[in-house]
Amino acid sequence: MSGTPNELRVSQSGARLDVVIDRPHARNALSIATLEEIAAVFTDRAEDDTIKLVVLTGAGDKAFAAGGDLKELGARRSAEDAAFLFDLGSRATEAARRFPVPVVAALNGVALGGGAELAVSCDYRLAARHAAIGFIQARLALSTGFGGAAALQELLGPRQAMRMMFESAILPAEEARQVGLADAVANEDETLDELVARFVEPILALPRELLSDFKAVALAGEDESRRAAVTAVERQRFIRAWASAEHWSAADKVLAGRSQKRA
């Protein structure tokens, strides 16, 4: 990868690549720089045949990624800004989804909004017991904005995905597992790191070429034409919602509330 990441911590141990969103002061919110670096890491390392597995997580124990960075994005209110943001977010989630070997999202805390979209772009989601996931975009009068609708529909089906969006619920880890948004939750006496190590052990025991074969077959099983159609409509609708008065009225209330807390 060209340059040194500032928003991510990237390290490799053996055949395992760890990518950590390193913005705990902002609950690992996805800034423009963060999304650019996620896209770059997954794109630049895709041809590295020393990697058998990627684990994506957030710094600390509060948040995997608490949505887009509203404070930074608050000045970007036009339809053109929305198109830029959607395309950048989609590039990051697509780079993770299409990475040639398995990608595991380790949910160390909440995955909300765009953070939930990033989580479902990974092959598997492993959750700490206190973790939670929520597609809460509707609370800001938004639809999904990082290309996550197709992945959510593949996991839950279009009608259940729509219900999750309009209910804007934040699902605790065990409930997320029950509906299919998490693949495993740490046991009561188990840390997230221990769960991840247990889950990835059989993966790391296999040859890289075989893992690449499995991933290629999994991607071939997805309906790419349907995904493209979903994403095209998703992009159009996100641009409309982002530039709407309803969205910015809700967003401004959130930003004002944060300012009052800091005062």
Label this structure with key terms.
263 residues, alpha/beta, 2-enoyl-CoA Hydratase, Chain A, domain 1, 6-stranded mixed β-sheet, 4-stranded mixed β-sheet, 10 strands, 50% helix
Total individual domains: 1
State the shape. Answer: globular
- Proportion of strand residues: 15-25%
- Please tally the β strands and state the result: 10
> Considering DSSP H and I runs of 4 or more, what fraction of the residues is helical?
40-55%
Return the CATH class: Alpha Beta
What is the CATH homology-level superfamily? 2-enoyl-CoA Hydratase, Chain A, domain 1
Instruction: Quote the distance from N terminus to C terminus.
Output: 40 Å
CATH topology, anyone? 2-enoyl-CoA Hydratase, Chain A, domain 1
CATH architecture designation: Alpha-Beta Complex
Cα-based radius of gyration, to the nearest Å: 18 Å
Strand order of the largest sheet: 1-2-3-5-7-10
pLDDT averaged residue by residue: 94
Would you give an account of this structure?
This protein is of the alpha/beta class. The chain has a single domain (8-209), classed as 2-enoyl-CoA Hydratase, Chain A, domain 1 (Alpha-Beta Complex). 50% of the residues lie in helices and 16% in strands. It has 11 helices and 10 strands. The protein has helices at residues 32-44, 70-73, 79-97, 114-120, 149-156, 158-167, 173-179, 192-204, 208-220, 224-242, 245-262; strands at residues 8-13, 16-21, 53-58, 63-66, 103-107, 110-112, 124-127, 132-134, 170-172, 184-185. The protein has a 6-stranded mixed β-sheet, sandwiched between helices. Strand 1 and strand 2 form a beta hairpin. Helix 3 packs antiparallel against helix 10 (224-242) and helix 5 (149-156) packs across helix 6 (158-167). The longest helix has 19 residues, at 79-97. The chain is globular, with a radius of gyration of 18 Å. The mean pLDDT is 94.
